[in-house]
Structures are given as structure tokens and as C-alpha cells.
């Protein structure tokens, strides 16, 4: 089974890049399932009905979120209506769900879990390590025909992601990091047969800072005065993603391959 996971989709440039690149890529690589992090899809912060429907029309099957999961008014509506999940370790009472069972074949399903890190993050989230344990304790994997677990861990700190990798190594098929918008060069299959990458990267404006226009970012660094963050509406876009190939017999990853493409958005 081939799973394409797309990094943080940022603003209209990111969405347009997905719309133009994904259909052909999906066909060329014979992808069975497409997952994308959509937490920046609505003008760089959060998601809306419009952005989700655009991405689904382009071929995205399921979406994850992050620290901007509730950045948009009435955002809880999207969690009731679409195959989109927010970090499971938001405190109890937060709208939405933190995991989803995705049908694949008659007797084979994927469990997709979304978690958020705590180091260097602005809010106080529950422990992602313990939340992973809690989810698995509450789901009967055999009765739900779950043969592989995919985790999007949305986190700033490299060491936190790596520690989590080792914590779930015997239980997950893939741990894929998001949030920093920079693809890391450490994609690997570890000894337990799990695919891992510290950060998948982003889909968005390529010639700025993390998808944003450079001017305001540089002024802020020079003056320590916070200038507005501007998302360009056109320009060169980067498309970061990985393809994880999972063995359907044992639920372990056979390979993880980073894919980066560039495209001009007018």
C-alpha cells in the first residue's frame, strides 16, 4: 500500500500547487491513499469548508491539523463534516476528533492519529506520548481490521519528535513530523520496520520564509518590531511530501521516499 503524505499546505499558493501537482503525481506513483496537513490552508492559519473541499477535489483523502486547528470561527463544523482530524492531545472538551479509521480494503483499515508536541509550543497540551497509549488502549485493532497506524506529530522540537519515534517504534507503521515547514533529510526505515521523518516540510510560496513574504519577516528580525506576515498569492511554489510503502502482510513500512517539486503559480 502506498500512502502519499503532504506537508503543511500554506495559503492559496499551497492549495493551487496541490491542485496542479497532486492528480498527476497520484497517478504516476500509483498512490492508494493521500493524507495532507491542512492546518495552514486558509490564508496560512486554520482551515475552512472551502479550503478542505478544494483539497478533497484535488485528490486528498484525509487531513490532519496542528496548533492552528481552531484558528477559524466555527471551525468545529469541519470536523463533523469532513475526514479531517485535529491533534488528539488537545485538552478534553475540544471539538473534533484526534484519530480516524480509514477504510482501505474489505479486511484492512488504516488508523490515522494526529498529535501535537509540547516543547516550544504556545499552549499547554496533554502529553502526546500518553495520548498515543490511550488511543490504542481504547481501540480494538483486530476487530476494526486495522493493519497499520500512521501518526502525524505536529511539533517544533526535533528531540521531542525523535523521542516519540522510539516510543512508538514497535506499534506504528509511520511517524511523520510536521509544523516547521522545512523538510528534514532524515527519512528512514528504523529497525522495527517503521517509517520516520522529522518534518515533511510544506506546500507553499518557495521564495520567502516558511511560505511567507520576506519583507515583514526580515524587518521583524532587524528591528524586533512585529510586522505583518503576508502570504503571497502567486510565485514559485514548493511541494514537499513523502510516499510511504507499507507491506500489507505485516503492516510494516518497506520504504519512505521524499518528493519535492516546484511549480509557478500565477
UniProtKB/TrEMBL annotation:
Active-site residues (renumbered):
68
Question: What domain of life does the native source organism fall in?
Answer: Bacteria
Question: Which InterPro entries did the record assign?
Answer: Metallo-depent_PP-like, YmdB-like
Annotated residues that bind Fe cation 1 are located at 8, 39-40, 181
Q: Which Gene3D superfamilies is this protein grouped with? A: 3.60.21.10
Please name the GO terms that the record assigns under molecular function: 2',3'-cyclic-nucleotide 3'-phosphodiesterase activity; metal ion binding
- Residues given in the record as Fe cation 2 binding sites: 39, 67, 154, 179
The protein's UniProt keywords, in alphabetical order, are: Metal-binding
Keyword Coiled coil in annotation: no
The entry's protein name is Metallophosphoesterase
> What taxonomic lineage is listed for the species of origin?
Bacteria, Candidatus Falkowiibacteriota
Amino acid at each position: 500500500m502506498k500512502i502519499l503524505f503532504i506537508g503543511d499546505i500554506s495559503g492559496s499558493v499551497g492549495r493551487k500547487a496541490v491542485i496542479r501537482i497532486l492528480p498527476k503525481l497520484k497517478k504516476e506513483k500509483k498512490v492508494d491513499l493521500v493524507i495532507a496537513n491542512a492546518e495552514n490552508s486558509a490564508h496560512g492559519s486554520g482551515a475552512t469548508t472551502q479550503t478542505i473541499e478544494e483539497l478533497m477535489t484535488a485528490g486528498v483523502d484525509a487531513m490532519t491539523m496542528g496548533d492552528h486547528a481552531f484558528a477559524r470561527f466555527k471551525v468545529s463544523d469541519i470536523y463533523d463534516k469532513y475526514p479531517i482530524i485535529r491533534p488528539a492531545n488537545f485538552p478534553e472538551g475540544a471539538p473534533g476528533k484526534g484519530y480516524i479509521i480509514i477504510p482501505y480494503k474489505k479486511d484492512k483499515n488504516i488508523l490515522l492519529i494526529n498529535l501535537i508536541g509540547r516543547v516550544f509550543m504556545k499552549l499547554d497540551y496533554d502529553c502526546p506520548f500518553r495520548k498515543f497509549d490511550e488511543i490504542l488502549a481504547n481501540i480494538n485493532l483486530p476487530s476494526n481490521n486495522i493493519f497499520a497506524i500512521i501518526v502525524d506529530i505536529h511539533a517544533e522540537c526535533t528531540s521531542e519528535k525523535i523521542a516519540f519515534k522510539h516510543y512508538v517504534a514497535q506499534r506504528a507503521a509511520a511517524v511523520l513530523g510536521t509544523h516547521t515547514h522545512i523538510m528534514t533529510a532524515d527519512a528512514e526505515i528504523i529497525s522495527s520496520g517503521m517509517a520516520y521523518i522529522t518534518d515533511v516540510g510544506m506546500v507553499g510560496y518557495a521564495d520567502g520564509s516558511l511560505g511567507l513574504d520576506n519583507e515583514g519577516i526580515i524587518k521583524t528580525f532587524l528591528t524586533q518590531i512585529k510586522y505583518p506576515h503576508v502570504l503571497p498569492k502567486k510565485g514559485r511554489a514548493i511541494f514537499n511530501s513523502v510516499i510511504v510503502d507499507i507491506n500489507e502482510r505485516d503492516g510494516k513500512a518497506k520504504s519512505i521516499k521524499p518528493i519535492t517539486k516546484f511549480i509557478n503559480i500565477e
